[in-house]
Amino acid sequence: MGKKLFILLVIYLSTDLFANAQTVEWLNLPSGRQNSGDTTTGMLNLQINTSNFIKDNEYFNQMVEGYTLIGFWAEPTLQYNLDNRTHIRGGLSWVRFFGKEGFYSNEPILSVEHWFTPHISLTLGSLDYGQRGLPAPLFDPERYYLKRVDNGALFGVYTSHFSTQTWLSWDRFSFYGDSTQEHISAGSSNLLTLLQGEKFTIKLPFYFVVTHKGGQVLRPKQPIETLVNAGTGVSFTWIINHLSIEINPNFFIYQKPTSHPSQPFSRGWALYPVVHLSYGKLTWESSWWYSQKFIAPLGEKIYAQLSTYQVNYTENARQTATNKLAYRCPIAPGMRLETAFESYYFPAEKRMDYNFWVHFNWNFNHPLLKLKP
Description:
About 5% of the residues lie in helices and about 60% in strands. The protein has helices at about 1-15, 145, and strands spanning about 45-60, 65-80, 85-95, 105-115, 120-125, 150-160, 160-170, 180-195, 200-215, 225-235, 235-240, 245-250, 250-255, 265-270, 275-280, 280-290, 315-330, 335-345, 350-370. β3 (about 85-95) and β4 form a beta hairpin. The radius of gyration is 21 Å and the shape is globular. The termini are far apart.
């Protein structure tokens, strides 16, 4: 019933789409935070970002069971500009799932961001949520609900021909004598523009993600685990009137350089060709996933080869055909509706799973007062 209602909603929204077409970027799971407010020196800004959401995963495959995420997150912050290049931001991040007592997460936010040039920046402290240019098989979009804040460092370079985001997140800290390992994750997404034309563009993406579990100060000592994902591809984009067409074949590798047998596979690879179309407020993406002994510890679990609920169940090879249809539009000042339907077909299981989600996102920025720096 939910699937039928969602399809009817998309058909209804599409009538508005073709009357008001414009080129937009592909929507995966967008960040609620869209701008940093007034950057005038000495300005203190109030920023409030919220999302009320529902995501229903109707999954019955061998790797991940279905579940529903329904609730909200809210992130009120204050940003103070020491000058137009250095900003201090503090606040709170709350996530709550309905039917669950209390908050799923309740984290402080404190970060310092500095722009060395108009194109190079460094952030230390709390890092905003973002997909960070990484594809879903390497970086799970459900972090939008489940992990709003990373804590560490983010280095960015943004130019017309090359852009990069390289980040480090200290996910679990260990003191001397602790029995729990420290957890660290890091990654880098990079995009090199090879050809930039008015109607045709060629870009070269390359990705890197690593997770590490270790710690010299643990008692008792525990085995170290490091998992590495890397990948590259090529992106061809055509603009035809208001229609954007992108073809993006990708190749990923997985390796476990540590010797302890903590995972069933030590190395593997995957192919991930993607086609997506954008027309006005609507986007459609189709992809094919083929992997051999591939593990992505931060990736979306629907692509996994290790079952999340069946003990010791693995598959040496896995194939998945994916189709995603998404729509977004502003519906009130600062308020945006975002909705999508995603289907996954598994040839080996002869099974079709799907999910759908709806977000009401509100972004509010207001300069409060100007202080002397």
